[in-house]
Automatic annotation (TrEMBL), chain A:
One of its GO terms (molecular function) is ATP binding. This is ABC transporter ATP-binding protein. InterPro entries: AAA+_ATPase, ABC_carbohydrate_import_ATPase, ABC_transporter-like_ATP-bd, ABC_transporter-like_CS, P-loop_NTPase. Residues 13-248, 266-511 form the ABC transporter domain. Keywords: ATP-binding, Nucleotide-binding, Repeat, Transport. Pfam families: ABC_tran (PF00005). Transmembrane segments: none annotated.
Length: 517, 372
């Protein structure tokens, strides 16, 4: 970390009074943000706080309804991204904009290729990308095919792309979401080096630990407004969380649970699957989860965690191995039977699998009750008064913010949508709960609430398998943690006896220890 | 996180604007229907004007012919009865994500089955004979559509293709039966034998063609609406159609729902064929369907597979067809022009109802060739 930059004369970039509305929704209201030369300025806030809107305004993707943008003291108006690129603003998107089959040189120069008459001048391109690549310490042959590189390197290609276009201001949108802890640290070193060289960086994140590790200043947005801007050294995570959520009581440490760990509930033995979509195939995965216990599954995305969840609930078939639930083999059973036997599942992709996104809240809540109704009763009414009352009661009990049980799920925020899923799954009173990325895209206040409900479930004796890309989440909740690497369990440890760094090593497959289930 | 979680509305599922129950939607829909009718009216005025007739009086005569007095209303409704049943059937399949465009074929299969049951069984007690004819038709349609639904559920054979192609197989096979082995020898054209009198619905209003089958049609429409919109079965079907991945993860029997909804859809389309035979034609002949199955598909699309909206659109469609016949009688505006008019109105309605978006979704499905 470096000294905070509070002095200096005129800022490199100044956004003042930015207001942007979409119909009845105000995404940004009178937002102020500035950036000094050579500074890393973090922009934090919950989902829907207006971070992305603000950056899209800056990048020329949206036109603000009010407010001004100054670059180097000159008032500018960005009508499209190419305008802002001309003023030296570059954006590294969360989802990479790289063509996997192109070479590194082709990707970096894409859209601003050297050469004439529509011909790609390979030599000139190789020459042109040399300097930005060396600035980042990327040592790659320009003709390497991009798709063969790992995620962290691809991210560096993205940053190179921005530098190649001559960016002085680099916007990074959630850049660490796809990285391991070690890769994250490397990225931070790199960002610091770029800042020391004179680039200015806007770092968008909701992970406070990272913000405090890398940023010089922190600006917090809440509900579309600037809540605070302060030097990192002059504030602390508690204050920032309070600013983000508007509450002073959000717990950031380990979640308190009083659950007695008892008998084995879920036992997977040597389970394997075929390759499924983008995820690695499972290759002989074995583990147990006990009653009252939370077992975390850590790993870089794409190492088999998603398939593991789907194989356990029964939407992906096994090619080998067995799954036992409460002493009963469920290997060959379908989803409905597994659920009837006490398995519950919070899927990773909320919009596709968690809720009927265009259906009503009640339709999302009631799947568990309507799934198993048999024979002639299925001809009866799906939502009689009793069912609607039950739905209203759940909305109340899980404090789901919705106009009513018949509101469309798609109109709810991520946190409230996830509460629908959690409410439905916990109401089935499961003996084992599989959570896949349970708090992705969920705001801090709702996370607090969801963790509380999960802790209550374990106190009732529920066994929980927590699959998460967020190591903090795993460290805060789980008793044991398994690390997955290329479809295998690469390591297992008690949470109290391991560290983020150690887990990170295993996540990269650096050291494969003996697997013990 | 903000960018990653904003998935587009309904990346899967055909009828994505489903489950909408908020206030204000009804008015939007009414406005949409109004827009369509105005476009249609303007087109009609233009076309009639071009033929050198006074547009408004000509149109008024057409409307008079369609809904001018109780007799004409009854006649218009009688013509539309099979369409009501078929459209509800198609809508039910759409709701569960099964694009059953084999309605025409299922209507032919049902018509053939009921014509055979009506001609070769009996005479017997009328109620029983009619029930037999209708059950035979339902079974034929249900078997046909159910088999195609099973192919989709079990083997991933896209039902858009299979139902479309099944039309030609079924219609041509029925034509073969009607012109070959089952032909009525006393007639020149390709028809089966006339059904016995106990297999015909009695007219309830003289010289309107409106028979007792109207009660059956009302009951079937009510049943279809209940099944699709209110019942637990309908909930499973709708979830399967709108959010198949959600339904799967929630433990809803997605394959079973797909097959069952196709069975229900095929049964209703088959019954529509039986209505044609037992309530008006009295026998199967090679052109008996006259495109009612295609009309049903169109109307269900315009009604976005909502049973009530679909029924309203069937009514509008029937009035339009009857009015076109009326216009034809009082002017030299040929029936071809009225067909053009109807097509234009349907296109306008389709544009409003987002049908083109739905077709884009189908194309997308083909290009990705990912059978779920």
């Amino acid at each position: 970390m470096s000294e905070p930059l509070t002095n200096a004369g005129r800022p490199l970039l100044k956004l003042a009074g930015i207001t942007k509305t979409f119909g009845p929704i105000t995404a940004n209201e009178d937002v102020t943000f500035d950036l000094e030369p050579g500074e890393i300025h973090a922009l934090v806030g919950e989902n829907g706080a207006g971070k992305t809107t603000l950056m899209r305004v800056l990048y020329g993707m949206y036109q603000p309804d009010a407010g001004t943008i100054h670059v180097d003291g000159e008032q500018v108006e960005f009508r499209k991204p190419s305008d802002s690129i001309r003023y030296g603003i570059g954006m590294v998107h969360q989802h990479f904009m790289l063509v996997p089959t192109f070479t590194v040189a082709e990707n970096i120069t894409l859209g601003a290729e050297p050469g004439r008459a529509g011909l790609f001048d390979r030599k000139a391109a190789d020459e042109a990308i040399r300097k930005p690549m060396s600035r980042l310490g990327v040592d790659l042959a320009p003709n390497t095919i991009t798709g063969t590189l790992n995620v962290a390197t691809q991210q560096k290609i993205e940053i190179t792309k921005v530098l190649y276009r001559g960016a002085r201001i680099i916007i990074l949108d959630e850049p660490t979401a796809v990285l391991t802890p070690q890769e994250t640290d490397e990225l931070f070193v790199l960002l610091r080096k770029l800042a020391d060289d004179g680039s200015s960086i806007i770092f968008i994140s909701h992970k406070l630990r990272e913000v405090f590790a890398v940023a010089d200043r922190i600006t917090v947005l809440r509900d579309g407004r600037t809540v605070s801007t302060s030097a990192t050294a002059a504030t602390d995570p508690k204050q920032v969380v309070a600013a983000m959520t508007g509450r002073g009581d959000v717990n950031l440490g380990r979640v308190h649970r009083d659950a007695a760990v008892a008998d084995v509930v879920l036992r997977a033995e040597g389970i394997s699957t075929a390759k499924h979509r983008h995820d690695a195939a499972l290759d002989g995965v074995s583990f147990t989860v006990r009653s009252g216990e939370i077992v975390g599954i850590a790993g870089v995305e794409g190492n088999g965690q998603s398939v593991l969840a789907e194989a356990l609930i029964g939407t992906v078939p096994l090619t080998a191995g067995t799954v036992n639930l409460g002493g009963r083999e469920i290997t060959g059973l379908g989803v409905a039977d597994r659920r009837t036997l006490g398995l519950s599942y919070v899927p990773e992709d909320r919009h596709l699998e968690g809720i009927p996104i265009n259906g009503s809240v009640l339709e999302g809540l009631s799947a568990g009750r309507l799934r198993s109704r048999r024979s002639w009763r299925s001809w009866g009414r799906a939502f009689p008064k009793a069912m609607r009352a039950w739905g209203s009661e759940l909305i109340e009990r899980y404090s789901i913010k919705t106009p009513g049980y018949d509101a469309r799920c798609s109109t709810l925020s991520g946190g409230n949508q996830q509460k629908i899923v959690i409410a439905r799954e916990l109401e089935e009173n499961p003996s084992c709960l599989i959570l896949a990325q349970p708090t992705r895209g969920v705001d801090l206040g709702a996370i607090d609430f969801l963790y509380g409900r999960i802790a209550e479930a374990t106190a009732r004796g529920c066994a929980v398998l927590l699959i998460s890309a967020d190591l903090d989440e795993i460290l805060r909740l789980s008793d044991r943690v398994l690390v997955m690497y290329r479809g295998r369990v690469a390591a297992e440890a008690r949470t109290s006896e391991t560290s983020r760094e150690q887990l990170g090593m295993h996540m990269m497959g650096a050291k494969v220890t003996e697997t013990a289930a | 996180m903000s960018t990653s979680t904003t998935a587009g509305p309904g990346r899967r599922g055909i009828l994505r604007r489903s489950g909408a129950r908020g206030p204000g939607r009804a008015t939007t829909r009414l406005a949409s229907a109004g827009f369509t009718l105005i476009v249609g009216l303007a087109m009609a005025v233009l076309l009639i004007q071009m033929q050198g007739f006074e547009p408004f009086s000509t149109l008024a005569a057409g409307v008079q012919y369609a809904v001018g007095d109780p007799t004409s209303i009854a006649r218009t409704i009688a013509w539309g009865l099979p369409l009501y049943v078929a459209a509800i059937g198609v809508a039910i399949a759409f709701r569960s994500g099964m694009f059953n465009i084999g309605a025409e074929g299922q209507i032919y299969a049902g018509a053939m089955a009921s014509a055979l049951a009506g001609a070769y069984l009996g005479p017997m007690f009328t109620g029983a004979h009619l029930a037999l004819c209708i059950l035979a038709a339902a079974a034929a349609g249900a078997g046909l559509a159910g088999a195609l639904g099973w192919l989709r559920a079990a083997w991933g054979v896209d039902e858009v293709l299979s139902t479309l192609l099944s039309n030609y197989i079924v219609i041509l096979f029925c034509a073969y039966l009607a012109t070959g082995p089952l032909r009525d020898p006393s007639r020149q054209s390709g028809t089966t034998r006339e059904v016995v009198d106990t297999a015909r619905f009695a007219e309830i209003l003289p010289r309107t063609g409106l028979t007792g089958v109207v009660f059956l049609v009302v009951a079937l429409c009510a049943l279809g609406w209940w099944l699709s919109e209110k019942s637990v079965i309908g909930y499973r079907w709708r979830m399967t159609g709108e959010s198949p991945a959600f339904a799967d993860a929630a433990g809803i029997d997605v394959k079973g729902s797909r097959i069952a909804s196709m069975v229900a859809s095929g049964a209703l389309c088959g019954i529509a064929g039986a209505v044609l035979v037992t309530a008006s034609q009295g026998r199967f002949w090679t052109e008996i369907g006259s495109g009612i199955g295609w009309d049903a598909v169109l109307v269900a699309l315009i009604g976005r597979a909502r049973p009530v909206a679909t029924l309203v659109w069937v009514t509008i469609y029937c009035v339009m067809r009857a009015a076109a016949r009326g216009v034809e009688q009082v002017s030299t505006v040929p029936s071809e022009l009225s067909l053009i008019l109807i097509s234009a109105i349907i296109i306008a309605a389709a544009a409003r109802a987002g049908v083109f978006g739905q077709f884009a979704a189908f194309r997308h499905r083909f290009l990705r060739t990912k059978g779920r």
